[in-house]
Design a protein that fits this description.
This protein is α+β, with helices and mostly antiparallel strands. It contains 15 helices and 21 strands. Strand 7 and strand 8 form a beta hairpin. The protein starts with 11 loop residues before the first strand and ends with a strand.
Length: about 550
Amino acid sequence: MRLVSQRSRPRARRVAIVAAAVALALVAAACGSSGNNGGAATVTLDASSPNGGDPAQEGTPVNGGTLTVGSYTESRSYDPTVGSNLVASAIYDSLLKTDASGTPQPFLAQSMDTPDQGRTWIMKLRPNVRFHDGTPFDADAVIFNVKRQQDNPTALGHLYTTPIAAMTAVDPLTVRFDLKEPVGSFPVVFALPFGSGNLGTIASPTAVNKWGADYGRHPVGAGPFKFVDWVPNDKATVTRNDDYWQPGLPHLDGIVFRPLSDTETRYASVANGDIDLDIAGFHTEVYRASQDKNLKVYFGPGGDGEFLYFNVNKAPFDDPRMREAIIRSIDPKALSATQYQNTMQQAVTAFAQGDPNYSEKAAQEWPAYDPEKAKQLIAEYKASGGNPNFTFSDANAPNNIQFATFLQAQWAAVGIDVNLKFDDLATLVTTVVQGGQFQMVHWIAGPYENPYPFMFNQFHSGGINNYGRYSNPQVDAALEDAAATTDPAARAAAYQRAQELINGDMAVVWLSRAYKAAITRPQVRGVQRYLSSEIFWGSIWLAK
C-alpha cells in the first residue's frame, strides 16, 4: 500500500469508529438526534459540502482574527491517551489523515508503505518539524507516543497497538513497525480522529515527561495552534503557531472554544452571531441551518448512525423471531415525519448507499415495515412459551423521551408491552450499556470514513463496542479478512459479506444516519472536516 502526496488526493474525511472511552460523547449526540414534531417538510438537509468548503469559490484567504466556536460536548483531556476532545486537532496534527474515499494520506508523515503485504510498515516523517516547545518531531517521538498507548491498557488507542510486535527508529525520520500478522488497514489507525483514539496524534515527549499525569492540561503538539489555557465548562483558548510546518498557515490569530451542551443555546448562538462556528451533533441543528441562508452547513450522513442495540444474550432478543418483529413494526415514514421533520436519512445497513463497501443485497434483505408479519412472529414466539414484552432503555432527555414514546406506540400496535427506562447519561453509558444491563437500548455512532476498525469494534465477537454481545464466527472471519488484506477489492468484498451476515442476523435495528455537522457564519471560510465533527483548523480564515 502506497500513500501518495497529500496535495494529489481529495479532501479528508473522518473515521467514525468509537472507543468505549468516548461513549459518553456519542450518547450525548443520540440524546438530541431526534427532531421536533412537525408537518410536511419543505426543505431537505443540506449535504452539498460534507467535507468542507471549496477553495476555488471562497476567495483569497486573509490572515488575522479570532474564531469563536461552540461545541456540543466539553473536552475530557488534551492527552492523546485519554481523548474525548473535539478541538484537540487545533493543537495536534495527526501523522496521517483520510481522504474523501476513506484512504489514509500523508500529513505529518510523508508516507507509509508495506514491502510485504501488511506484515511490516515503513513510515517516513516530514523533516524540519518542531513541537511547540521547540523540541524535534522525529521517529523517537512517534515511538514514544505509540508506546504510551501500548503500555496503558485503558488508553484510548491501546486496542490499535495490539498487532505491533516491535517498533524501530531506522533513522531520525523513519519508523518501522513489525506486526504479529499482516494488517492491511494498519495505516488507518494513524488517521483516526483524536476523540476516537488513534496512534497518529503525537505529543511532545519533553512536555509529557515534564507534566506527567497532569499533561492533559498542558498539551504540546506540532499543530497549527499553541495551547494557551483551558477553563473547564467555560472555554479553551489557543493561539497561532508561527513555526507551523505548512507554509502560510494558520490564517487565524487564535481560536476560543466554548462548550455549549444545550442544543437550543448553541444553535441560537451561531444564528445570532455570538459564535462563528457550531460543532453540531443533532438533527435539529442541521435541519434549521439548511433553511437559513445566512448560515453554511457542512454535513454528510456517512455510514453507521442511529440504531437500537439488541442484547442478543437476553430474552426476548435471543430469538431471531422477536428481532425481526421489532424491525417490521417500526414505520420509517412515521418515524421520519414525527421525529425528523420528514428529513430522516434512513439507514438499512452499516454502510451508506454509494460507499464502495455498501451491499445492495444486504439492503434488499433488510426486513421491511410489515406490522401483520410482526404480529405473526410475536404469536409464534408466545406459542413457544416466550414473553415478548421488554424494557427499552434510553437517556433521560426530552428528545429521547419523545423518541422512545413513539417507538413504544409502534410496538404496542403489534401487541408488545414495552416499559420505558430513562437514566442519566453517565449511568446509561457505564452501567446500562457497557455493563450489558439492557434488553434494548437507543444508540448512535459515526458517521465514519473507513470501516476499520469501526466494523470490527462493533460487530466482531471481541469488539470493544459490541455492546449487544452479538457473535457470528462467519462475521468474525469476514472482518478479520477485511482488516488483513491490502487489496481494496478484496477488502470491499469482505465488508459486503460481513454486512450481509449482520443484516441476516438482524444484529441491530438500523434507523437513521448520524447528523454530525459544522455550521458556520458566512464569514467563516476554509473549513476542512471529517464527517463526524473533527475539523482541521489551520485552513480556516475569516473574510473581512
